Structure formats: C-alpha cells, structure tokens
Automatic annotation (TrEMBL):
This is Putative GH43/DUF377 family glycosyl hydrolase. Belongs to the glycosyl hydrolase 130 family. GO terms for molecular function: glycosyltransferase activity; hydrolase activity. Keywords: Glycosyltransferase, Hydrolase, Transferase. It comes from Novosphingobium hassiacum.
Length: 316
C-alpha cells in the first residue's frame, strides 16, 4: 500500500449485547432442521431486513453440495421468515456445481447484486461469481469475476466497498501455501472503476501478526464506511489450529493505509455446545445504526448470532 501516510486514529468498540438469530421454517417439515447455517448476510431497506444465508446438511454426504443459499425477511433483524425455494442453487455449470457459498449483497440502482463463492464440480477450487436481478426471487448468474492465480486457491468471502475516489474495492479470502503441507488463508484485494469490473488484483491490504490471535489465518468481514471517516472492517483471524475470532481494522479513505487495528479480538466464541463442535466465530455482515452496529456472524459453522457493538470513539 503506497501514497502519503495519513495520521493514525484511535478507535475502539464494546459488545453491548449478543442475540440469537432465528430462521423460521417455511415448510411444515422444517426447512432448516438438520442443517448448518453459515455466512449470514443481512441488510436493511425501508425499516425491514433481508437475509441471505448458506445452508448445508449436517452431516454432509459425499454427494451433497457444500452450500445452498436461501433468503429470508424480518421486521426486527432477529427472526427471519425463510423463502421456501433457494435464492441461488449450485450448477448446472461446472463452475459452481459443487456448491454456492458466502453471499454478499450490493445494491446497484434497482438491482440486487450477489457476490458469492462458486465451488467447482470436482470441489477442487472456489471462484468469485455474481448473480444479479431486481429482487432475490429473480437472480440470474452472470459470470466468474475472479479466479485464483497460479499458486493460490479458493477465492471466497467477498466484501465490497467504495473509496472516496469513487473506485470499488473487492476484498476476498484466498488460500496460500506458506509451508509444505500447511496452508493458510489470507485477505486479498482487487480494484475496479465499476461493480461490473474488470477487477485488477493489487497488493494485500494487510497481513498476519506474529504472536497474536491472528498469526496464521485471515478472512474478510463486513466494512462500515462513513463519509470523511476511516473505513472499518470487522475481519476474521485465526491461529494455526484454526481457532477463529473476530477483530477489526481501520483504513484511510481510499484503503491505501491501515490507520488502526485491534490488539485483542472483539468477539471470542463461547465453548462449543457439542463435543464435536469447532472453536470458531466468523463475521459475515453488519448494519450501521449510528452509535451502534449490529454485527451478524456464525458460531461453530452451525448457528447464527447478532452482536450489538457500541462505538467508544465519540467523534465517529
């Protein structure tokens, strides 16, 4: 990241409350019974809330897709009535026949753009794709936006933001082999003048820190952007043994420099409810309510939560 270094700022947040996010089955047989829930993307329009979420069977059979994306609506942002039919299904083309994951919504004029991860039929690679339509019931898959270059893999977990210069940034997670037999996740970034691209990959926006809670893996999370203020990403970080926590990092107006970063994680998951559970909290989306932020995330890759965060920096 280059250019004139801006002055550093001092940010902080506190967790005020944690609530359970409930998905009401649309069918009598229970649409979500026996399924894991991941990547909850929630956004607000005219006082109502929309949701896209990755749904997958538990246990996952060899022939099951790695994810199907369902949609829901809510009055309060906590209890969602789910649509009976998926918003995005795998296939039929090879590029996403293995599963569809990690939805991220960008509103563009009258259309909804959904950036999502497509897992290929062989389940050997994930790429960034996009679906577009006037609403969540009329989404049409467009094209592959970003594929992994040589030596990298599994482009996923899109986060889209616009800089003060008007250009767009596409943050994404990618797989990187940093030691034989031991891979790691990193956060990459691509730049484009329009949401349709073309997207040009640039230098990674930040990296891991030695002897910290995010010393091995990184993955993208949602961004809060306010005019004239630092952009804040609630990102996901982990150690070598994949103990994932949620922290935050702040950028200048055009994402050229990091101006602040948390020392300790903001959200640490509680002990897993089941002995088979995994130690992971993973942020997916947020809704900005001024002094407070509603952060949506998954626990154990199976249940959904919403944290209410409070800004501790008065001028922001």
């Amino acid at each position: 990241m280059s250019g004139t270094v801006p002055r550093r700022v001092s940010l902080d947040f506190a967790v005020e409350a944690i609530d359970v996010v409930k998905l009401d089955a649309a069918r009598k047989d229970g649409l979500l019974e026996g399924y894991d829930l991941m990547s909850p993307f929630v956004w607000e329009r005219e006082g109502k809330f929309d949701l896209l979420v990755r749904v997958l069977p538990n246990p996952l059979a060899p022939s099951d897709p790695t994810g199907v994306i369902y949609a829901g609506k809510s009055d309060d942002g906590l209890s969602f009535a789910m649509q009976d039919s998926p918003a995005i299904l795998p296939g039929p083309e090879d590029k996403d026949a293995g599963g569809v994951e990690d939805p991220t919504v960008v509103l563009s004029g009258q259309d909804v753009l959904v950036f999502y991860t497509g897992v290929d039929r062989a389940r050997s690679q994930g790429a960034m794709l996009v679906a577009q339509g006037p609403d969540l019931t009329q989404l049409a898959k467009k094209e592959v936006l970003l594929e992994a270059p040589e030596g990298e893999g599994n482009i996923k977990e899109a986060t889209v933001a616009q800089g003060a210069d008007g250009t767009y940034r596409l943050f994404y997670e990618y797989a990187r082999d940093i030691r034989p037999g031991v891979g790691a996740s990193r956060i990459g970034m691509a730049v484009a003048t329009t949401l349709d691209g073309p997207w040009s990959v640039v230098e990674d926006p930040f990296t891991v820190r030695e002897k910290a809670w995010d010393n091995w893996h990184l993955s993208t999370g949602p961004i809060i952007s306010r005019p004239g203020k630092p952009h804040v990403m609630f990102y996901n970080g982990a150690t070598l043994d994949a103990r994932w926590r949620i922290g935050w990092i702040a950028f200048d107006e055009n994402f050229t420099h990091v101006v602040d970063r948390c020392i300790e994680p903001l959200i640490v998951p509680p002990p897993p409810e089941l002995r088979s559970g995994i130690d992971i909290a993973f942020a997916a989306s947020c809704v900005d309510h001024g002094k407070k932020i509603h952060l949506y995330y998954s626990l154990e890759d199976r249940v959904l939560r919403r944290s209410t965060l409070v800004w501790l920096t008065p001028e922001l």
